[in-house]
Amino acid sequence: MAQEPSADRRLSTLARHLLPSSPRRTAAAAEAEDIAAGTLESSPTMASQGSSVFAALAQAPEDPILGVTVAYNKDPSPVKVNLGVGAYRTEEGKPLVLNVVRRAEQILLNNPSRVKEYLPITGLAEFNKLSAKLIFGADSPAIHENRVATVQCLSGTGSLRVGGEFLARHYHERTIYIPQPTWGNHPKVFTLSGLTVKSYRYYDPATRGLDFKGLLEDLSSAPSGSIILLHACAHNPTGVDPTIDEWEQIRKLMRSKSLLPFFDSAYQGFASGSLDKDTQSVRMFVADGGELLMAQSYAKNMGLYGERVGALSIVCGSADVAVRVESQLKLVIRPMYSNPPLHGASIVATILRNSEMFNEWTLELKAMADRIISMRQQLFDALKSRGTPGDWSHIIKQIGMFTFTGLNSEQVAFMRQEYHIYMTSDGRISMAGLSARTVPHLADAIHAAVTQLK
């Protein structure tokens, strides 16, 4: 049996690789020898023991959304409830991996021909094709006319960022209007993409519903050609969506002013339980022949949170423009992350290409949506039975993962302190974080908050 090389031999071999064989002592070799001998004096760029070139850095605050989970994890209370996390939980409060996802992974694992080579810059071609069909419809004229450029991105966030940077480089308007309120990461993503971020009215605190009049007024006032961010369904954080008639009015107004739609679709099928119903707004804009951007995520609807699977699609005016758009998207992606990860996209493609697995996915998807709808009803009933002051019907009117409760930051802080219930300071709660066991505890906390703190 061969003996393990001694430490001295290993160091000697390493030195031969690192140091030049020439008898002339290069500057790099001299520095290496000086470091080894401990004779090199420290410089401002060398951290000595107990100091750092980054010593003056301030401690950054926790992310307002992800920081909720950090605080929750530190709480030793046995009755604590985390309603801040934007991820589905079972009735037992556990993360869920869909059965169909496990099946897809097993198929991939059992395929001996699979390798770990880099994907192209644009990602997995089959994934891109199937993702466009899922969001726009298999019979979409834009797809049949080859007017859609689709690239695989790092979930919804990455899709938004790539789209934002593409627009900052190539679109004649650099201002994007986002709804007020919106997902907390939207303004950061678009600002760092190189766009100027402004807002349009969306939510009416008085009705806890849509401020449709304010929305139309603000879009009417936006300069022609401005970019408008639209939530495809299940608006985050409010859970308030326009009706189909209201979407049609929005579409007509935007097209009349040449406003460019940029859709964010994080909840297709997860909101209502129907993949087609949750894309009605998007397909209305595609059907009129106009152009748009679409950021698509599989985090929620396939439970692929950590796999970071998403796509950016740009619906163009013609096939030749789509080809050029794709070529420029490559130039955005290449220096950013070079190419996307393989595994998650392969899972999605495996499920979407197989009709039997696709049907199984839709059943599991509807079961998740139905459980969230059930939590809405149970919470509403619990508040009603306690006689909690106020009209809480918005809980069952809103849609998707989140409910905008209408609780203020003081009431949220009270519920955290007294009831160990964690949510974002704006009163947004994740309905997927609730269960039949925790609904009474939350209802008690809300009742106490609104009766003791006005």
Automatic annotation (TrEMBL):
Gene Ontology molecular function terms on file: L-aspartate:2-oxoglutarate aminotransferase activity; pyridoxal phosphate binding
Keyword Transferase attached: yes
CDD domains named among the record's database cross-references: AAT_like (cd00609)
Alphabetical list of InterPro entries matching this protein: Aminotransferase_I/II_large, Asp_trans, NHTrfase_class1_PyrdxlP-BS, PyrdxlP-dep_Trfase, PyrdxlP-dep_Trfase_major, PyrdxlP-dep_Trfase_small
BP-aspect Gene Ontology terms: amino acid metabolic process
Required cofactor(s): pyridoxal 5'-phosphate
Catalytic activity, reaction form: L-aspartate + 2-oxoglutarate = oxaloacetate + L-glutamate
Taxonomic superkingdom: Eukaryota
This enzyme's EC code(s): 2.6.1.1
Aminotransferase class I/classII large domain span: 80-446
PROSITE patterns, per the entry: AA_TRANSFER_CLASS_1
Keyword presence, Transferase: yes
GO cellular component: mitochondrion
Keyword terms: Aminotransferase, Pyridoxal phosphate, Transferase
Further comment: In eukaryotes there are cytoplasmic, mitochondrial and chloroplastic isozymes.
Description of how the protein assembles with itself and partners: Homodimer.
Family membership noted in the UniProt record: Belongs to the class-I pyridoxal-phosphate-dependent aminotransferase family.
Name of protein: Aspartate aminotransferase
Organism: Paspalum notatum var. saurae
